[in-house]
Amino acid sequence: MYGLGIRLGYYIQFYAAAITNSIPIEGVEKLKQDKERDIRFLRIGNLSFLVALALATMASAGVGTLRPVDVYISLLFSTGHYLYLVPLFAWRAYTKFDEYKDPTRWVRVWTGTMYSILNYIVAIGTSAFQLWFWVTQAPYTSTPDCTAYGFAFCRVSLDNKAFRIVNLVLHSCLIFVASFYLCGESSILIKYVKRAHAGSAAQTPDPGQVQFAIPSSA
Q: Whole-angstrom Cα distance, residue 11 to residue 116?
């Protein structure tokens, strides 16, 4: 399942997104606008790639064509990056949402409301699937002849009870955090639609440019 082509697909996609988002743009304003547009397309493409991987994994797990350890590895590759939202939200809550203490306040490119809404919907959906996996599949990952291991900054058996509880707690928290952020982004979009419907869209920021101070996962 994890041949050279699949691994290269993962790595090239991830590194391309990271490198493109980190290249500073200097020069005329048009070049900056073009790069922001290109990064937006890259993020949408990256999100589409990850959604396709997650959906394929869920479908294969549903019909039983994947072993539980394969499901774990695929989900970790495709959606594991969403877990950073949990400690980020904890830090924001600790600082009482002080924007000047937010490490993600000054991003290079605003992702926009629509992208953020789609991103958090994906996070909620995949985290709900993760809860199902850790409750119904993870306990049966190991056999007498083969033990399946996961990553927790060390090698841990996937059917380890403490490891399963930690993952259940993390993904439950992620559903809460992503839902909280989704409500914030949705309120921005609803406000824009109402103002546009009232004929005052000219004074309202384009929701494609608005950000609820929430970082991208790309």
A: 23
Q: Which domain holds residue 86?
A: 4-203
Q: Residues 173-199: pLDDT tens digits?
A: 999 999 999 998 888 888 888 887 776
pTM above 0.85, yes or no: no
Tokens linked to 156: 């841990």
**Domain membership flag for residue 212:** no
Nearest CA-CA partner of 57 in 49, 45, 66: 66
Number of domains comprising the chain: 1
In a domain, 22, yes or no: yes
Distance in angstroms (rounded) separating the CA atoms of residues 82 and 174: 8
Structure tokens at 120: 């958090």
> Is residue 213 in a domain?
no
The reply to whether 209 falls in a domain is no
State how far the Cα of 216 lies from the Cα of 44, in Å rounded to an integer: 11
The three-state secondary structure class of 146 is strand
